[in-house]
Amino acid sequence: MTGLTTRLPARERRADGRGAAGPAGRVLRILALVGASAIFVYPFLWLVSASLKPSDQVFDNALLPRDWQFGNYTEIWEAVPLWTWIVNSVTVTLAAAVTVTISSALVAFGFAYFRFPGRNALFGLVLSTMMLPAVVLMVPQYLVWNELNLASSQVPLWAPNLFGSAFYIFLLRQFFLGVPRELFEAARIDGASYWTMFTRIALPLCRPALAVTFVFEVQAAWTDLVRPLIYLRDPDLFTVPRGLKAVLDQFGEGGELRWEIVCAASVVVTVPMIVVFLICQRHFTEGIATTGRKG
């Protein structure tokens, strides 16, 4: 007994992180986190700094400009219809995020709740679509939208999300499987329909996973360049990434070589994503953590 009692405190100290490492271990962890944060933050700080410099100082790698030039931001708003592109991106992004969240949740709930022959095989078939490279589908999808006379509109940028996404279906299914089945069975006994169970029980209990799906798709739709390059030809329909490509063509490669203008435009369109993440950070991290536990 004496030996056991003398060993317990040491184990407890190791369990809560205050064992042999002690303060030195905490300092090392903090330094590692600060170093990793600096690596990720530095490119954005460089971008902001370059957007505030004259043309001849953009690539001098100094984080503090010698000559501050705030007029770059005024010039970019006057040179291109940046506000129109931002509005287009917000519209497309919200449409894509809302549709894929709802459609993927419906399919995921079906796979999680209903028991039917071939369910696992069908779910495996859905997951297998993630193995197809996106470039393989570009030509067939374009032909479909062209037959519908929508190949020059913004519809192809978000309408495919009406059919869900294999990755989000997998993520949400794992979360739905963590909901006790007894809740649904009790609701069925009380006369609830499947739609009522989905909207009144499944969705409220799975808000973190829905938030993760929504934020993931917001980021994917906001930064998507390939599809706008394929479908958008009218500058008034450009989204932010497609507009940045036009800015790059005009002020960067083969243009006037005004890289500070390109950097200013990049900062303007990057800030909204940072704001979205800061607002949804709690739901985002909670959803990632709980989804991992419920897998």
3D structure, described in words:
There is one protein chain. The longest helix has 36 residues, at 259-294. The chain has helices at residues 2-15, 22-50, 71-79, 82-113, 119-128, 134-147, 166-177, 181-189, 194-205, 207-223, 226-231, 240-251, 259-294. The chain has one domain (81-294): MetI-like fold (Orthogonal Bundle), CATH 1.10.3720. 72% of the residues lie in helices and 0% in strands. Mean pLDDT is 83; it is low at 1-8 and 10-20. The chain is mainly alpha-helical. It contains 13 helices and no strands. Helix 4 crosses helix 7 (166-177) and helix 4 packs antiparallel against helix 10 (207-223).
State Rg: 25 Å
Distance between the termini: 41 Å
Relative strand content:
under 5%
CATH architecture: Orthogonal Bundle
CATH H level: which superfamily? MetI-like
What is the string of helix and strand elements? HHHHHHHHHHHHH
Number of domains: 1
| Contiguous helical run count | 13
Structural class: mainly alpha
Summarize the structure.
The protein has 295 residues and is mainly alpha-helical.
Helix and strand layout, with pairings?
Elements: H1 2-15, H2 22-50, H3 71-79, H4 82-113, H5 119-128, H6 134-147, H7 166-177, H8 181-189, H9 194-205, H10 207-223, H11 226-231, H12 240-251, H13 259-294
Keywords:
disordered N terminus; 13 helices; single chain; 295 residues; MetI-like fold; mainly alpha
